Amino acid sequence: MLHLENLSFSVHNNGDSKQIISDINLDIKRGKLYGITGPNGGGKTTLAKVIMGILTHTAGHIYLDGEDISDKNITERANLGIAYAFQQPPRFKGLTVEDLVKIAQPKLSNLSVRKRMRDVGLCPEDYLDRDMGSGLSGGEMKRIEILQVLARNAKLAIFDEPEAGVDLWTIQRLVDIIVGKYQNNPEAAAVLITHNRNILPICDEIVVIEEGRIKHHGHRDEIWPIIRDDIVCQVQDTCRGEEII
Amino acid sequence: MKLEELDKNLLNTISDIKDIPKGAVNIRKDGQAIYRQSSPNIEIKTGETGGLLVEIKPGTKNETVHVPVILTQTGLNDVVYNQFIVGENADATIVAGCGIHNDSHGRSRHEGLHEILVKEGARLKYVEKHYGEGSGTGQKVLYPTTKITVMKNAVAEIETVQIKGVDDTVRITEAYIHEKGSLKVVERLMTHGEQNAVSEIKINIEGQGGSGQILSRSVAKDNSTQVFKAALVGKNECLGHVECDAIIMDKATIKAVPELMAEDSNAVLTHEAAIGKIAGEQLIKLMSLGLTEGQAVDTILEGFLK
Ligand SMILES: Nc1ncnc2c1ncn2[C@@H]1O[C@H](COP(=O)(O)OP(=O)(O)OP(=O)(O)O)[C@@H](O)[C@H]1O
Ligand SMILES: [Mg+2]
C-alpha cells in the first residue's frame, strides 16, 4: 500500500547539511502491523512526519497505492487515508475533547464518541467537555490523540510511541484495540513507533532505525531475537527514565 | 410593535433574541426608545440623566433585562447615559449591546455610559456585545464606558464581546469592589482590516476580602491594532488577577499593559500576559485530521474566542 523509495530528509543549518533520514526503502502492506524501533534520535518521528507530509523529503519518492504522493500536502494526505498520532500532541485553548474527536471524525454519533472514549480508558462524562488547553495530563493527552487517529479509520495509521506516559492497564487495552483493528484488516495497516517489549513482538514486521537508516527489517521471528537483548536494553537505559515493561 | 427584518437580525446578533423578549426590555433605535416594558421586579424608566434608570428590586430571583441599542441611520452620533441598580440579594442578568448597520459612507457612532450599582449580597451578570455590519465604507464607531460598584458580599461578572465589524472602539471599564465583593471581567475581542480597538479596565479593590479578576482573549488580524490596559488596585487585604492572552496575525499590532498597584501589604495581585501567533503544531495537527489550513486557522480562533 505505502511504498518508500530511497527516501531521505536533510536539514540545512548555517550552510551545513545534516542528513536525518537516509535512503529508506520500505513496503507497507495491508493487514499488517509494523513495529518501528531504535535508539532516541534515530529518525523514527522524522520518518513518520515525512510520510504524513509535515516534513518534505529531500530525495526519493513516496507512493500510496501506486500513486506518487510526494507533492501532496498534509490535508491531502490525510484525506487519502494517512493518519498520524503525534509523539507530543499539541494543546488547544478553547477546544474541548469532544470538538477534537468530531474534527477527527465528523461522522461519529454521540453514542460512538462515548464508546470510543471508554475504549481508550476515558470516562465520557468526565472528559467530553474538558478543555484541550492545559488541564489534561500528558497521559490523558496521549489517549485522546490515539482516539482521534483510531476514529479516522485511516488506511495507514501511524502511532508515535503510543505507550509513552500511558499507564500499564490502558496500554494493554490500547494495544488490543490497535491489533484488533489493523492486524489482518484487508483495508488498512498500522505502524507503531515503540520501544515497548510487549508491543514489538506482536507486530508482524519489525524495522530498526538507527542514525537515520534501516538497520534491520524483517519478520518478528527474525528480528525480535536480534534486538531483544541489544537495542531494547539500550533504549531502556536512555528512554527518558520511563518504565519499560 | 413590529420589528423590521434588519432590526431583528441586529438584535439577534447582539442579544440572542429573535423578537421582543418577555420580561423587562428597552430597545433603543437611532437615538430613541422604540419599545419599553417593565416587569413586576424590574422597572425601566427615564432617569435624571435623560437615559434609562433600571431598578431591579431587592430579592429578585433569576430575571433578565434586555437593553439593546441599534443604529441603522448613518451620520448619527448617539449618546446615552444609563443607570442600573441591582437591589440587595437580587440575582439578575443585564443584556446590553450595540449593533450598527451602516451601508453608506458616513459615520455611525454610539457612545454609552453605563453606571451599575450592585447592592449588598446581590449577584449580577452583565453581558455586552458589539457588532457592526453594512456594505459601505462608513465607519462604525463605539465608545462604551461601564462604571460598576460592587457592594459588600455582592458578586458580579461583566462579559464583553466584540467579534466583528466595529471599526473604532474605545472601551473603558471602571470598577469599585467593597468588602468581600467579587468581580470578574471577561473580554473577548477580534479585530480585522484597519480596525482599532482600545480597552482600558481598572478595578479598584477597596474592601477587605474583595476580589477582582480580568480575563482577556483577543485576536488581531490584517492591519488592525489593539491596545489593552488592565489595572488592578488593591487597597486592602484582597485578591486580584489579570490574564490577557492574544493571538496576533498578518500585520496587526497588539499592545498589552497589565498594571498592578498594591496599597496594602495583604493585597495579593498577579498578572499573566501573552501575545503570540497560532502555534504551527496546532495547525499541523488539525491539517493531519483533514482540515485545510484555512479551516484549521478558523477552528483555532473560534475555540480561542469561545
Ligand atoms: N529540524 C531539525 N533540525 C535539526 N535536527 C533535527 C531536526 N529535526 C530532527 N532533528 C534531529 O534528527 C534526529 C532524529 O529525530 P527524531 O525525532 O526523528 O528521532 P526519534 O527516532 O523519533 O527519537 P525518539 O526516540 O527520541 O523519539 C535527532 O537527532 C534530532 O535532533
Ligand atoms: Mg520520536
How does this model look, in words?
The complex is a heterodimer of chains A (245) and B (306). By secondary structure, chain A is an alpha/beta fold. Chain A has one domain: Rossmann fold (3-Layer(aba) Sandwich). Chain A contains nine helices and ten strands. In chain A, the strands form two sheets. A six-stranded mixed β-sheet of chain A has the order 6-7-8-3-9-10, with helices on both faces. Chain B has helices spanning 5-15, 280-287, 293-304; strands at 24-29, 32-37, 42-46, 52-56, 63-66, 69-71, 77-86, 91-101, 108-118, 123-133, 140-150, 155-164, 168-177, 182-191, 196-205, 210-220, 225-234, 238-248, 253-262, 267-276. In chain B, the strands form two sheets. In chain B, strands 1, 2, 5, 6, 8, 10, 12, 14, 16, 18 and 20 form an eleven-stranded mixed β-sheet that branches. In chain B, strands 3-4-7-9-11-13-15-17-19 form a nine-stranded mixed β-sheet, with no helix packed on it. The two termini of chain B are 34 Å apart. Chain A binds chain B through residues 52, 54, 73-75, 78-79, 83-84, 86, 89-90, 92-95, 99-100, 103-104, 148, 152, and chain B through 217, 245, 279, 281-282, 284-293, 299-300, 302-306.
